[in-house]
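User: I'm preparing a small set of examples for a lab meeting where we compare how different chains pack in three dimensions. I only have the primary sequence for this one, and I'd like the structure in C-alpha cell form so I can line it up with the others. Please keep the answer compact; I'll paste it straight into my notes.
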Amino acid sequence: METASTLAAGGSDAATEPLHLLHRAPSARSTSLLCPNVELMYDDTATQLVDLIKGYQQGKLAESSAELVRKAYAVAHEAHGEQKRASGEPYIEHPVAVAHILLGLELDPASVAAALLHDVIEDTAITHEQIEEFFGCEVVHLVDGVTKLTVLENQTKEEAQAGTYRKMFIAMADDPRVVLVKLADRLHNMRTISAMRQESQQRNARETLDIYAPLAHRLGIWQIKWELEDRSFALLHPDKYREISRALSLRRDAREKMVHRVISRLNHVLEKEQIVADITGRPKHIYSIYRKMERKNVSLDQIYDQLAVRVIVDTVGECYQILGIVHATWPPVPGEFDDYIAMPKESMYRSLHTTVLIPGGQPCEIQIRTREMHEVSEHGIAAHWRYKEGFARTDVSFEAKLAWLRGLIEWRRDLTDAQEFVDSLKSDVFEEQVYVFTPKGKIIDLPIGSTPVDFAYRIHSEVGHSCVGAKVNNRMIPLDYQLQSGEIIQIMTSKTPRGPSRDWLNFAQTSGARNQIRRYFKRLRREENESAGRDLLEKELKRLGLSPSFDEIARVWGARTIEDVFALIGSGETTARQVAQKMLAQQVQEEETLADIPQIAPQVERKTDSAGIQVRGVEGVLTRLARCCNPVVGEPIVGYITRGRGVTVHRADCRSVLNERDRARLIEVSWGSAQPQQGFSVPMRVEAWDRVGLWRDITNAIADDSINIEAVEQVSTRKPSRAILMVTISVHSIAQLSKILDKLNRLPDIIDARREQNSAPVSA
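Assistant: Understood. Below is the C-alpha cell output for the 764-residue chain.
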C-alpha cells in the first residue's frame, strides 16, 4: 500500500481534491453506480480480470462475480485517475497487480474486489460510507481492515504504524481474508521496491521479515512466505544473499542430476506397485538455507536438505504406502521423520517428511502428501475460499482450525497500547517456534523458550490458574523448564482453586501467560497485593545483598509511596526482580556520577591506587576489600582507617560499619575509573534438594559465565534430603553477581541461592 506522499510530482493528489466519483455523470472512463443502466468500464485489463475469475467460478456465481470485479475495477481506475507510483507507472497498476496475486490463489470475488479498492479510502476522496453503499459490508470490511490509520497530531510515525498493525490483526481475527489482501499488497510492493529510496527499502524489508513473512508462515501460505523472505533478505543482507545464490548456482547442475536420479528411481518402484504419483524436485529457498546455516552454525556444505523431492498422490493410504517404499529403497536418517498427517500443524499444514541417504551418502528430503494437502500447504488459509457454486461458507472444520488464531488475538483486544499489542503478537506468534504435544496428540506451537506455564495458559486460562506441576514425557519437571520440540506435556492441576504464583512472571515466556497472571492478581484486594509484594521484594533484595531504604525505592521507582510499589509487585504489574535491578542500576549510575565530579580543592583530591579505590584527601594509601561484606563494583562503599594496615573498604550498609561507634575512623571512598581485572570475592549460600549431579550442575552454570570459583564448603544440615553449599566466587560487578544468582535459582532442585552476609568485626 502506498500513500499519496509516494506519488510523483507530476501526478494529481486525489486525496486533496473534492472528488465525488461515485456520483459523477457517466463518461468513457467511469460509471455512476447510482445509474444501473450505465455500461460498466470494460477495457483489456477488466476483461483479463473477469476471465480469470470465471476460470474457477461457474454458472450464475461466475456472472455475479464478474460484475462485482468489473465494477470494483471501474471505480478504482477512475478514483486513482492520473496518480503515479514512485516508479512513474500509473497507480492503477498496483491494485490490479494485487488482484492478480489473489486471483492466482483463486480467492473469492469479494477479496479480489477489495484488492482493487484497497487504496481508494486512503489515497482518494472516496469514503468508507460510499464503498459500503455500493459494494456492501463484506467488501468494505476487507478494505477498511487494510487501510492505514492516519497519523494523529501527537503520534509518532512508529505509534501510528503500531496502531495500523493492531487494527489489521483484530480485523484478521474476524475475517482472515483481510490479511490475505494485505499480504498480496506487500508482495507486489516488494516486487517493485527498487523505485523507493534506499532507507525506505531497508525499513520495508525489515518490516516484511519481522511481520508479514512470519504471518504468511503462520497462515500456511508458503507461496507468498518464501518470496517475501527471499526479497527482504536480498535487501537486508545483499552480500550473504549473493554468496549463497552463487554457491547454489555453481552446484545446480550436479544437484539437478542427483534429484533427477532420485525421481527416476522412485518412479520406477512406484510403477511396479501400480501407484500413480506426481514427483518433482522441491526448490530450497535462499533465506531458509541462510537461517539453517545460522541456527546450526554450519557451512552450506553441511545443510542436508538442499536435495528435496515432493511426491503428490490421491489418497492418504498411498502416502503411507509410499513412505514404506521410500524407506525400503534408501536408508532413512534417524530422527529425521515427521508425520504431519496424523498430527497436523495449527496452520493446517499436513504432509509426511522423511530424510534418506541416497547413493554416495548424500541426504535427500522427501515430502509425501495428497493433492488436497498440497493445495493447503501452498496456499494455506487461502485454500478455504477456493469454492465452486453452492459451496457452504459455514465450514465447521475450517472454523475449528482458525480457533487458535482467534484465541491468540482475542485477549489482546483489551490492550489499549498499540505497541504493546504488536509486541505481544511478535513474541507469541512470529518468533521461532517449538512444537509440543498434548497427551491426546494435539500439536501446540509456542515460542522458543516457553515453559509448562506458557503451555498451560495456551490450553485455557483456568488450566493455567490451577496448574500445580507438569510432566514431560511422563517425567516430572520444574515449571520453569524450557520446552523442546517433540515433547509430550502433561499439566497437573489442583482440584481446589489456588491461583497462579507471582514468581511465574519471572520465567513465563509468552505475553498471553504473563497477562493472564497479571489480570488474576489485579482482581485481588490491594491489601493482599501489598503484603505479597512486600514479601517478594524483601526476598529479592536479600538475595542480592541489598538494603536500600523503602523511601529510596519509592523515589527511584517514581511511586508516591512504597505501598504503591508493593501493590504493583503484588498485582503482577511489575516484578520484585525488576525493582531490585533498577536499584542496582541507580547505585551504579550514582557511583559513576561521583567518580566524574572534578575536585577543585587540594584537600579533597582523589587518588586511584592499584586496587581501583579512590580515597578522599589521601594519596597512595594502601586499601583492601573487607572480607565481612565483600563489596563489589557498583555498590556504595565506605572506608575504615585501620591501625597500620591502611584503609579497609566496606559496603556502606555493612553491619560492622553501621555498628561502629568511632565514626571518626570512617572515611569517604569510591570506585575508581580504572577498575581491577582480578575480580571481587563474593560468598554465596546455595540451598538445594540433595541429588546426584547437583554440584556438577552448579559448577557448570558458574563456569559457563566465565566466573572463577575460589572456595566451596558443604554445611551440615539436620535435613538429610537437603544440601547447603557455601561457594565463594570472583565477580567483576554487581550486575554479574545478579545474573549468576538468577541463573542458579533456575536450576532444578535449587531451593535458594543468595549472597551470604558475614558478620566479622570491622577491624578484621
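A couple of notes for your slides: The mean pLDDT is 75. The chain has six domains: 4-237, 244-384, 431-521, 524-596, 606-671, 680-755.

User: Perfect, thanks.
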